[in-house]
UniProtKB/TrEMBL annotation:
It comes from Streptomyces boncukensis. One of its GO terms (molecular function) is nitronate monooxygenase activity. The keyword NAD does not apply. Transmembrane segments: none annotated. The lineage of its organism: Bacteria, Bacillati, Actinomycetota, Actinomycetes, Kitasatosporales. SUPFAM superfamilies: Inosine monophosphate dehydrogenase (IMPDH). Keywords: Flavoprotein, FMN, Monooxygenase, Oxidoreductase. This is Nitronate monooxygenase.
Length: 368
């Protein structure tokens, strides 16, 4: 399950696993893939430094990456307080009323009010990069388009290739023009921020649009057969995120959330702006329903929405209020039916890949 790209990065498998959990990223890398740690929650550079030092020790020189959220537009001098001041009182009241309706308690005194989605701020993202480039990061990924030109140049100077997610062939061509090395074609089925085009359609469009740049397929990939399909469409690997949420290494503190994920079907997700202000696929809950209701005020644009709901999400998760409890996840959730180790997931992916390749060889007369 190796391609030119995975071989170049020193990975055994063409398997790129995005995750917010360092333990999952390390386990993906140890299992032969490339674990990619999401950095958006690291507003404290010291915390990121500690986790990357831990990753270094756990991966033993095998490749891992870092995923940042960094806008092309510069927003120098903008602080979190500046952004908070833009949030209308109507929306704050809506949050309070929705939480009260479901009886969500306040956080205990002194307990953290949840991570704030401030990784989009240029100042925060650049501190993350200052830390990252002190470590043997094998890949820098940008979740919402290409990073600024000077960041791409800096990454290249460090010998680190840059990947960027794209939801259309047009976006992918812009990534290529911006000097991006790898394009992640993220389809409609994916968890988190997605566009309108399905992976089966998007992947070959992006492959043609940016040739000869390597493309990774994302969205709806949770089995080896699906990974084989992605490679058949011209991708040089799969970018998987949702499938790791129910691994033991993820260790979701809200056990109710794990139960909801394991019980969910492929139709139990929705693209909603409730979490960040941009359309993001997540479990459908009473929380997403409230924000998508035409009777409500509607979500604010990114990053206002993320700042607005940060503490509310922390309270929902802290008290495991099941009607409101959700997480970004793709349609592949319908196949996530048991808690397993990361190694077990990778083993099943490789077995499924081999089964798919064997079937194709038989169809072409190569398998005897």
């Amino acid at each position: 399950m190796q391609t030119e790209l995975s071989s170049r990065l020193g990975a055994e498998h063409a398997l790129f696993g995005f995750t917010p959990f360092p333990a999952v990223a390390a386990a993906i890398t140890r299992a032969g893939g490339v674990g990619v740690l999401g950095a958006v929650r690291y507003t404290d550079p010291g915390a990121l430094r500690r986790d990357l030092e831990w990753l270094d020790a756990q991966t033993g020189g095998l490749p891992y990456g870092l995923d940042v959220v960094m806008p092309v537009e510069r927003a120098e001098g903008v602080t979190e307080a500046d952004v908070e001041a833009m949030i209308p009182e109507e929306h704050r009241r809506f949050v309070r009323d929705t939480l009260a309706k479901h009886g969500v308690p306040e956080l205990p005194a002194g307990e953290d009010g949840g991570w704030r989605i401030t990784g989009w701020l240029e100042s925060v993202a650049r501190t993350q990069l200052d830390v990252a480039f002190d470590h043997p990061v094998a890949l820098l990924a940008s979740a919402l388009g290409p990073p600024p030109a000077d960041v791409v140049a800096r990454s290249h100077a460090q010998g680190v290739p840059v990947a960027a997610l794209a939801g259309t062939a047009r976006h992918a061509r812009r990534h290529r023009e911006a000097g991006i090395d790898i394009v992640v074609a993220q389809g409609y089925e994916a968890g988190g921020h997605t566009g309108e085009i399905a992976t089966m359609v998007l992947t070959p469009e992006v492959v043609r649009a940016v040739d000869p740049l390597p493309v990774l397929a994302a969205g709806g990939i949770g089995s080896g057969e699906q990974l084989a399909a992605a490679l058949a469409l011209g991708a040089q690997g799969g970018w998987l995120g949702s499938v790791w949420l129910t691994t033991r290494e993820a260790g979701l503190h809200a056990r109710a959330l794990t139960r909801k994920l394991l019980a969910a079907g492929s139709g139990d997700t929705v693209r909603s702006r409730a979490l960040t202000g941009k359309p993001a696929r997540q479990l459908r809950t009473a929380w997403t329903d409230a924000w998508d209701d035409a009777e409500g005020p509607g979500p604010l644009p990114m990053p206002l929405q993320g700042l607005l709901v940060a503490e509310a999400n922390a309270r929902i998760q802290r008290w495991e209020v099941e009607p409101l409890l959700g997480t970004p996840v793709g349609q592949i959730v319908g196949s996530m039916n048991s808690e397993r180790s990361v190694q077990s997931v990778v083993d099943e992916l490789t077995r499924g890949f081999e089964r798919a390749v064997t079937r194709l060889r038989r169809l072409t007369g190569e398998g005897g």
